[in-house]
Amino acid sequence: MFLLLACVEVPLDTGAEALQNVISGTVTFAGSGSPSNTFVLLFPADDPPPPYGTGAPVNFTTLTASDYTGEGQGLQSASYAFPAVPDGSWVVTALSDSDGNFQPQLDSHAGATCGDVVGGHVQSLSDTSLAPLTVAGGSWLQNVPVLLASTLTTQRPVFTFDPVTLDQTQIAAGGAIPLRSDQVWSRDLKLAGPLDLSNPQPCNTFFPLYIVDADGDGVADPHPTFGQYGFATVWPHIYLVYAGEVEEGESWISELMIPLEPLGGAALPLNTVLPFTELTTVLFPVAQHTLPDGSVEVVQAPGLPAGPWAVSVVSITGQTWTVPNDSASATSLSATWDPAAQGAVVMLK
Amino acid sequence: MLMLLAMLQTAQAEPKDDARRHFLAGLSYAQQQNYEEALAEFLKAQDAWPHPNTLYNIAKSYADLGNIEKSLEYYRLYRSAAPDKAGDVDPVIAVLEARLSAQKQPPADLERLRQLREEEAALLQQLREAGVDVPLSSAEPLPEAAPTPEVSADPLELPTNDVFFSDAYQQEVVTASRYGQQPLDSPSTVTVLSTEDIRMSGATTIPDLLRRVAGVEVMSLSAGQVDLSIRGFNRELSNKVLVLIDGRSVYQDFMGTVVWATLPISMEEIERIEIIRGPASAIYGANAVTGVINILTRTPGEGENEVVAKVGGPDYASASASMTGRNKLLSWRIGGGYERVERWNRAAEISEDSPLVPFTNDQETAMRVLRANGRVDIPFLDRGLVSVSGGYADGFTEFYTLGALGNYGFDFQAGNARLDVGFDPVHLRVFTNHLAGDAGPWLEYVGERSLRTRLESSIVDSELEFLRQFSTGKIVHHLNLGASYRFKTIAWDYLRGDGEPIDEHHFAAFLQEDARLGKFGLVGSLRMDRHPLVPITQTLSPRGALIFRAFPRTSLRLSGGTSFRSPTFLESYLTLEQPTAADGYYVMTEGDEQLLPERILSGELGLRDESSRFHTADVAVFVNQVTNLIDLTDLTPNAGAYDPVQEGFRAGTTSFSNRPDTWTGVGVEAELALFPIDGLDVHGTLNWERVFDDDGTEVVVDQATSQWKVNVGASYSSPLRFSLAADIQYASPQVWRLRTFDANGQLIIQEEPIPERLIVSAKVATHPFKDDRLELAVSGWNLGAMGGQRVREHPKGQLVGGRVYGTVGWRF
Q1: CB pair distance less than 8 Å for B582 and A59
Q2: For residue range A239-260, what is the model confidence (pLDDT) as tens digits?
């Protein structure tokens, strides 16, 4: 009897959280050359990363270049895993950091830069939109492939603007906020402390303007919200985000419009990346307010919170830049870069 | 010699409750000169649990009843059982032999009988001249005719001033004062778990056995790791209780805990376990903060050889053998065993394509160990004893680590060697402990930086002690003086120096005076430890106790003292990149060489009562004030660039520091043991405690200690050669506050509740043969879990399972 007892299988502990709800798989590098240190990032599917949204990663894991095995393009791969993923729907992205300047703790360096190879867990080779993954009840999602195939040829949309104070009772007709993208990049700054994240291979910086004509009718698609005012759907998407104190889970965000007339209007080619170094944006006196409980309301001026608002630019490549950012406290290494300009805000009264 | 044995901290055969009860009854009858009843009780005592002093009392009873033949028989047995007492008993035997010989002379040999009488008289005269107090002979005049041999009803007058031994089954403890004393005289609260307690329990580990002791908090994180504390402050890798084997510390200095699996002894080799509650740095130095557990193994040459095998489920197997012997030159004991314990749970299914890299492919074994140990005692020159002992354990265990780190696997080799040289009143003890092995997280994810590590830890400890008992007037003194030196060397790549050995030299001196005057006892102890990183003012450990024997078998004790826990190597020298919930972030965790030791100031009032032969009881009320608790600091954000070696970004730095606040713990502990009838023992404990911070508000963090603990148990040994035992242990709910790191590498504190729990264990055994040498038993531990009622005893731990196993034991 005791010998029989001794043969009982050890039960699985379904409460061992660290080993439940796992997403794991293989990152395959299909870029040119060799993979670099790679960062695999996890986002909620309903708050995806740019260009699909404005989400920030809730977790990330790292793979060193030496973790990759195999030779030849598309044959180099490395395994990754996300343990203890909460129940829900998730998307996975990744970047191979060719220039070694990715730093998730610094918003000025927490994104893919020119030369990095980016990708994610996508629908298919032909449909490169992110495929959501559902995790629930202790499930293990194994063999989730992540493809790194797109080498970025543009820099992050670094920009400056002059600090501006707007009386929200007077912006009913829209306030203009000009943004400038200069021939500068973070190679020109050195952050305080032991970090030296200067960029060894800068790319030219510009706003990649992309006018969307999804239906191919030769006419720019109207903006889904402000199309009635003559605005088209264009990249980059530019947002005004309240930077004052909010409760956890709460946010205020307003999208800035790009009038195309000053840039060439109807003569501009559609579905084509156009480099611009200056954009003028238009602010509508309305913002989306996400409450701590997750509900959303639309609030019009003068009901917007007074105080500082940040400006974020999301490029069609998924690259982003936000002012103000932590490079405002950096030390400038060149005359063309004014770190203080990275501390500018839009002040709503 | 007895004193030397006490210094070696070994023990005589364990008292058995029934034997003690019959023995005390026999004494009572003897005092009333009712020798027939006394003899009956002494015989029952001897039958329940053999003891040389009981043999003596039986012999004396027969003598008092005038039965020379039986008296002689038992005196001879006594002489064999206690050869060191030969000098006392040989004259008695000689006289009895002469008497018996005379009684058996044929009638025609009256002349020869007279001759024998003359020889006897000459012998008695010689004894008197030798200083032996011999009463005048009461031998009756020789008859004219030869007497008919018969058993005399008159007490015999024997050539000694002997009285009945009164201490055959008197429990003796050696841990509280470093010499043998009755628990009634102990300056600390003491509990003794006997061989019988061990045999009758269903526990397979020492800590599980200790669950029944008041004030002891035990939690099983896995089947291979159990952590325990005394009077609160339990945690994973518990660090405030000093554990000794025969007085040798098995505290692992590198991490500040006891790795139970590395102990080289089996449960069957334990003579008894003494648990001292309260601070004991005054006599044992560092780390005896809230108590001492002294595991006393069997004395070489005593007891029987034994082979025991156990097998059961879930997948538990052990086997042990011990042999002992004695000759004119030496006594010896060797033992060995093997044990394998299955894990309570598996955390995950491991397959070839799973993203997990296990520490071992064997995902079912929680602990596996092969053990061996031995000891040889060589007496010399009447007052001297040389003892050489050693042990080795080779195995594997799973254990849970601190903070955000999870469970680890540990492939280890542990060895120790020890030399004791005692020459009354001086005792030199030298021992070395060595532990080496490879450790690492139980499971690591692919692509994750591995935390596997190699450890080698060695200590050499030497101590010279002077122990003397003397009297000044009516005051009886026990004086202990001593000095010790300990060398520690640790090579571990989690520490500074990247695996290069770090050495420490420790020195100590101690003094204890125990003075007894009538009903009063006064104990004063002081110890100074020289720690290489700590000012000596922080290690000064005084202790004082007043013991009042209000009645012959009832004592009150009032004691107070301080203790300290020295910072471990881990706390002083750690440099570890600790992973966080986000694999890409790590937190730099560093030791601090400026740490002060944790300190405790404790006061206790206790009452012990053994006034009847049917019970023992102990109640203690204590207050502890704890300062300088060592804890990890909050995270200091300190972003770093990507480190390809660590495969991540540094999120910040944390270090060990002394908490600035003071915690005050109060508690009540009660123990009661009853021995109402032959074969039946009933025991119970009750425990209540709380901890407050220096504002007087309750400290949430030590709700990790159950406020209430209740243990009730009973065992019954039937004359029909079977026995039953059962224990129920209850612990009230707990709340743990655990440090962990979130996905952004930020430190967060999570409150995790642990529900109340009940552990039920039982054993049924039979000795099918009359000689009791064979034992067949079925034991169960945590039987509620066998029915599916599993709980965690720590938020990170596994769901604690139950175990049922069969035992076959053979003594020879």
Answers
A1: yes
A2: 999 999 999 889 999 998 888 9
Architecture of domain A17-151: Sandwich (2.60)
Residues B203 and B122 in one domain: no
The domain boundary residue, chosen from B65, B95, B129? B129
Residue range(s) defining the domain that contains residue B494:
183-811
ipTM of the complex: 0.73
* pLDDT tens-digit series, residues B41-95: 998 888 877 888 888 889 888 988 888 888 889 988 888 887 777 777 888 888 8
Within 8 A by CB and 6+ apart from B134, the residues are B91, B124, B127, B128, B159, B160
Asked whether residue B176 is assigned to any structural domain, the reply reads no
Give CA–CA dist B792/B160, Å, rounded.
63
Q: Are residues B103 and B234 in the same domain?
A: no
B340-353 confidence digits (pLDDT tens): 999 988 877 777 77
Last residue of one domain, picked from the residues B129, B146, B169: B129
Q: Do B596 and B509 share a domain, yes or no?
A: yes
CB B648 within 8 A of CB B585: yes
Are residues B812 and B322 in contact, defined by beta-carbon separation less than 8 angstroms?
no
Residue whose C-alpha is closest to residue B443's, from A84, A28, A92, A143:
A84
Tens of pLDDT, residues B262-283:
999 999 899 999 999 999 999 9
pLDDT of residue B744: 63
Sign of the alpha-carbon dihedral angle for A34, A39, A40, A43: negative
- Give a yes or no: residue B63 inside a domain: yes
Instruction: Tally A–B CB contacts below 8 A.
Output: 143
Query: Cβ separation of A81 and B364 shorter than 8 Å?
Result: no
* Nearest-angstrom CA–CA distance, B347 and B363: 9
Count of Cβ atoms closer than 10 Å to residue A298 Cβ: 11
Q: Within a domain: residue B169?
A: no
Query: Is residue B137 scored above 50 in pLDDT?
Result: no
Given its phi and psi angles, is residue B231 left (phi above 0), alpha (psi -120 to 50 degrees) or beta? left
Judge: A2–B313 Cβ closer than 8 Å, yes or no: yes
Pairing between β-strand A22-29 and β-strand A146-151 as defined by DSSP bridges: parallel
On chain A, the residues whose CB falls within 8 A of the CB of B447 are: 61-63, 67, 78-81
In contact, A143 and A25? CB cutoff 8 Å: yes
Picking from B262, B439, B452, B266, the residue whose alpha carbon sits closest to that of residue B367 is B262
Is residue B21 domain-resident?
Answer: yes
Task: Please identify among residues 56-95 of chain A the ones whose CB lies closer than 8 Å to any CB of chain B.
Answer: 58-65, 67, 78-81, 83-84
At A191, list the tokens: 């952050």
Nearest CA-CA distance, residue A159 and chain B, Å: 24
What H or E segment, with its residue span, contains residue A325?
Answer: none
Best A3, A4, A5 member to test B by mutation, with max B CBs in 10 Å, is A5
The chain B residue lying nearest A1, using CA atoms, is B312
> In total, how many domains does chain B have?
2
Kindly report the CATH number assigned to the domain that includes residue B222: 2.40.170.20
